[in-house]
TrEMBL record:
It comes from Bradyrhizobium canariense. Residues 364-377 have a biased composition (Acidic residues). It holds the Pfam family AAA_21. Residues 25-332 form the ATPase AAA-type core domain. It comes from the Bacteria. This is ATPase. Residues 357-377 are annotated as: Disordered.
Length: 377
């Protein structure tokens, strides 16, 4: 199951946005417009599947820090709301402060509501509804089964109640497959620079700690790294990447054409090592269904942005990719490699907005394309 759209309300600089998800979604904007909040809100939504969403909010300073930072209209509750749609099924979650009667720590983020809905013909049917700690699940007969005090206010029904409802488990597993890459540590003590355990690894972890194993899986398990070598040649002409397993550990090195010997991971420059991480993200044995990256161009030499754009465009045929960037050069390179429109993030009346995005969650240029198709027919 791949997501078709997401909705965000009252998250940091985002007042209200409903955003369709395409095979490749690229958002570019200046510093301070809130483009990173698009990435962070998606990551927060995934934390509902792991059951860590309230802990993540607490780690970020609590609801006062992550909720809408602008002026609220009189009577607005200010709850943080996130949702995602998958093949006609929609998951939504609302978070707010504890009421005076609730047993909770002061300022603790509380899950107020969760729902799973599906569309049957023209009707929207609820399959699961959670209000505070009461969870109601619709059975096969259509009757509701209520479960009082089934979860704590800090727990998500999505993570804790999957066995009681197959739709919950279906959506949870879909969201657990999402991968988020914000940055990779490349300091001398970074685990990326060290050998890692030899475990077949289909996709790179968020921190890149299994980089060597991800690369070695292509060389040793798949026994086919031709596409990876082509990508290395595109970025570093004349270079050769090798990865292997020895004594239960995976390692890799890079032979550059003007150097007498290959360089191990601990010897590579920060930019080169980070680019190899991005190669592993987009060329792993099995790509996650949804990949989000925040400013992947950081620390890269400008000469690597065109090869990176080619990597991204090719990977978007295998997975949905969501990229937030402030690099106009990367945006131009992506525009030349893909016909997908690139989206500009702006501030409008103090809130993060996306040029061309309507309140209903459609892009105006998509509507124009549909009109053109109707005219042609």
């Amino acid at each position: 199951m791949r997501p078709t759209d997401i909705a965000i309300s009252n998250y940091r600089s985002i007042r209200r946005l409903s955003i369709p998800i395409h095979p490749l979604s690229v958002f570019v904007g200046e510093n301070g417009v809130g483009k990173s909040n698009l990435y962070k809100s998606l990551s927060l939504l995934r934390d509902a599947a792991t059951g860590q969403i309230t802990r993540t909010i607490a780690d970020e300073g609590g609801l006062n820090s992550v909720c809408w930072s602008g002026i609220r209209k009189r009577g607005e509750d200010g709850r943080l709301r996130l949702s995602a749609t998958f093949d006609g099924m929609r998951y939504s979650i609302e978070l707010g402060f504890p009421s005076p009667l609730q047993a909770a720590f002061s300022g603790e983020p509380m899950i107020k509501a969760e729902t799973i809905e599906t569309t049957r013909g023209k009707r929207t049917v609820k399959l699961m509804e959670r209000i505070n700690s009461l969870i109601s699940v619709r059975g096969e007969s259509g009757a509701w089964n209520a479960h009082k005090d089934a979860v704590l206010p800090s727990e998500t029904a999505l993570a804790a109640f999957g066995k009681q409802c197959p739709e919950i488990d279906l959506i949870r597993n879909a969201m657990l497959g999402w991968r988020f890459y914000h940055d990779f540590r490349t300091d001398p003590a970074s685990p990326i620079r060290k050998p890692c355990l030899a475990i077949a690894t289909p996709s790179l972890s968020a921190d890149g700690i299994d980089l060597a194993a991800t690369l070695a899986t292509l060389y040793v398990i798949r026994e086919d790294a031709n596409d990876l070598q082509d990508a290395i040649q595109d970025a570093f002409p004349g270079a050769e990447l090798r990865a292997w397993e020895e004594n239960g550990r995976c390692e890799f090195d890079l032979q550059l054409p003007d150097m007498p010997r290959p360089f191990r991971a601990h010897e590579l420059s920060d930019g080169t090592l980070k680019y190899i991480c991005l190669l592993a993200v987009f060329m792993g044995y099995r790509l996650p269904p949804f990949i989000a990256l925040n400013e992947p161009e950081t620390s890269l030499h400008p000469s690597l942005l065109a090869p990176l754009a080619r990597l991204i465009a090719k990977a978007s045929r295998r997975a949905d990719i969501w990229i937030v960037t402030h690099s106009e050069q990367l945006m131009d390179a992506l525009r030349s490699e893909s016909s997908v429109p690139l989206r500009r993030v702006i501030k409008s009346k103090g809130a993060t907005a996306i040029e061309g995005l309507t309140i209903g969650g459609e892009y105006r240029d998509d509507e124009a394309d549909e009109d053109d198709e109707d005219d042609d027919s």
